[in-house]
Amino acid sequence: MSRDIVITEVALRDGSHAINHQFTVEQVSAVARALDEANVPYIEVSHGDGLAGSSLQYGLSRTPELELIEAAVSVCKQAKVGVLLLPGIGTIKDLKTAAGLGVGMARIATHATEADVSAQHIYRAKELGLTTVGFLMMSHMAAPEKLAEQAGLMQSYGADVVYIVDSAGALLPDQAGERVRALKQCLKIPVGFHAHNNLSLAMANTLVAIQEGANWIDGSVRCLGAGAGNTQTEVLIAVLDRMGIQTGVDLYKMMDMAEEIVSPILQVPQEITRDALILGYAGVYSSFRLHAERAAKKFGIDSRDILIELGRRKAVGGQEDMIVDVAAEIAQLNSSTKIR
Amino acid sequence: MKKVKVAILGSGNIGTDLMIKLGRSPVLELTSIIGIDPDSDGLRRAKAAGYYVFDGGLKPYLESGVDLADIVFDATSAKAHIRHAKALREAGKFAIDLTPAAVGPYVVPSVNLGAHLNEKNINLITCGGQATIPIVHAIGSASPVSYAEIVATISSKSAGPGTRSNIDEFTETTAHGIEAIGGAKKGKAIIILNPAEPPILMRDTVYAVVEEGADRQAIVKAIHQTVAYIQSYVPGYRLRSEPIFDENKITVFLEVEGAGDYLPTYSGNLDIMTATAVKVAEEYAKHAVGIGTGI
Questions:
Q1: Are both B145 and B259 inside the same structural domain?
Q2: Is the same domain home to B97 and B20?
Q3: CB contact (8 A) between residue B253 and residue A93
Q4: Which of A26, B34, B177, B213 could form a disulfide with B129 if both were Cys (CB 3.0 to 4.6 A apart)?
């Protein structure tokens, strides 16, 4: 079946953030098998922060991610399993190990303005025969022209696709549109879009991105992703079907697996909580949410104050250590004002 | 005491910053700068400052026949250093390697400054390693560290093309240093580039897992002593807050402000490398003169 839009399901990677990296082999096998049966073409499986993300900084994985990747690969008949790699966290060695397990796609992620750190990793991913995707995170922090220039670098390193990644769920629809347009004008390769639903704009932005020519789209089933989750995959499949756009994905199978397999994995149903909303409003990396909630509790302060301050300081993806640092500062400031 | 002659290999940001710092050393006498680009800012400055300038790389320098240095700092790249290390060894020079090549043993001043003075090649690990390994070691002196993880965040502007094109070398070499020199059973390193304007200072976070019931006071004391020692040669190195304890996990927040010699003060990551290189070279020079090896 021909696909107008290539869907990548990210719940088994982005969703790792939402459940504190507690995925089990059984869960991953069940989800991957159901996605494969629903004819989803790409399934991403990794720690939320990519290969080697298991750490005190981001949270330790309950199950070594290589076991999860292996489990997913073993149950997929048609789907390719993908991995995420952030240079600076994971290395080419990790990529090679993952490739050895039968992975079919590598997504190499950098901050929106730092594409040049991905050159080696993109080159090696291609050499390993993987579908190779450049992933420009926190895209709201870079102007469309800058983003297009960075995407051009990833294309020159050999990427097959470059994604605009709205890691903070902060883009407004016109901002999403102008970014896709800028990339479409400069690139020869396809453009992708990855949304977060912190401002309830994931679906709207995804549709604008598609209208502007993006044809690689990420979703998370039941919104199992960081922050308020991503564009809800099963809903996206239904909407695109109504629009006459082919994804090749079976809507009923997606709805069933969302309800029966993914919903029980969620510790609480995904909704736009005040902290998720603040992520989008302040332009902060979505995986900061649970870390900020824990730090707020430890220091007896409002988690929103922490997230707003992180946005003001222009923290980028991966700077989870700043959360406790900023929380401690706010707590100290609060107590000194009280004394006065 | 007669000064010991030194040369710098590499005329990029690090080499040029090193040139300015060496100009202040009471022990070392910088004589020459060796680069490959005659139009580089570093070589132009070196010429203006009156140093011997070689713009054809290491080979013509060694073949020049004039003995201009006993210590050579290598501030090029890991790949180039593997070649340089061999040539310098054959020429009998003491090489201080500022690249992540790790040909020779690792040196971190607060841990093993005097350990490898009879070697001919020592390595300074990475900027993040120099900022964090001493802390891991300090914690370990009070309670064994089963796991240590460091996160170095540097401004995009201070990350040169060498770091960018080979970022895996940073994570791998630093993680190895945390184990080999820091003494942690298992080490991990993460590096993040932040493009914010104005550029941020270098930030380093150290997480260490110690034994249940470890003596917190002893740990805090050891950390403070180590910070004070590093401040003696990197004045802009400091704790951002008191160490935070969470059961058997310790978190230490650090920040490094550069001296602003060649690179602006936000480049604490480069400053800590050049300042460490000078510190190690001075120690070597004193040692060599002391035992009368003929330097």
A1: yes
A2: yes
A3: no
A4: B177
**Which two tokens mark A174?**
């016109």
CATH of A274-339 given 1.25.40.10, 1.10.8.60, 3.40.50.620, 3.40.50.300: 1.10.8.60
Nearest CA in chain A to B207: A56
Where helices occur in chain B by DSSP H, the ranges are 13-22, 41-48, 58-63, 78-90, 109-112, 127-142, 161-165, 167-180, 216-231, 268-291
Q: Give ipTM to 2 decimals.
A: 0.95
Interface of B with A in 242-271 (CB under 8 A): 244, 246, 249, 251, 253
CATH of the domain at B83: 3.40.50.720
Sign of the dihedral through C-alpha A18, A19, A25, A29: negative
Question: Which DSSP category does A290 fall into?
Answer: H
Are residues B213 and B258 located together in one domain of the fold? Answer: yes
Nearest to A318 among B171, B192, B244 (CB): B192
Give the tokens for residue B137: 């070691």
Residue A18 CA to residue A266 CA, distance in Å, equals 8
Residues B79, B148 within the same domain: no
- A17 an active-site residue? yes
Report domain extents, chain A: 6-265, 274-339
CB atoms within 10 A of CB A87: 28
Work out how many CB contacts closer than 8 A connect A with B.
85
DSSP per residue, B163-186: HHHTHHHHHHHHHHHHHHTT--SE
A86, A115 Cβ separation under 8 angstroms? no
Nearest CA in chain B to A60: B149
Q: How far apart are CA A49 and CA A60, in angstroms?
A: 11
Q: Measured in whole angstroms, how far is the alpha carbon of residue B127 from the centre of its chain?
A: 6
Question: Which DSSP state fits A194?
Answer: E
Predicted confidence pLDDT, tens digits, chain B (295 residues): 689 999 999 999 999 999 999 999 999 999 999 999 999 999 999 999 999 999 999 998 888 877 789 999 999 988 899 999 999 999 999 999 999 888 999 999 999 998 888 889 999 999 999 999 999 999 999 999 999 999 999 999 998 887 888 899 999 999 999 999 999 999 999 999 999 999 999 999 999 999 999 999 999 999 999 999 999 999 999 999 999 999 999 999 999 999 999 989 999 999 999 999 999 999 999 888 765 554 4
Count how many domains chain B has: 2
- How many alpha carbons fall within 13 Å on the CB side of residue A18? 30
User: Do A88 and B167 lie within an 8 Å CB cutoff?
Assistant: yes
Six token digits for residue A84: 């995420």
Same domain, yes or no: B279 and B151: no
Give the domain range for residue B166.
Answer: 127-266
Q: Which CATH class is domain A6-265?
A: alpha beta
Measure the CA dihedral A11/A14/A15/A19, to 10°.
160
Q: Using CA atoms, how far apart are residues A209 and A202, in angstroms rounded to an integer?
A: 10
User: For chain B, what percentages of helix, strand and coil (3-state, to nearest 5) are there?
Assistant: 40, 25, 35
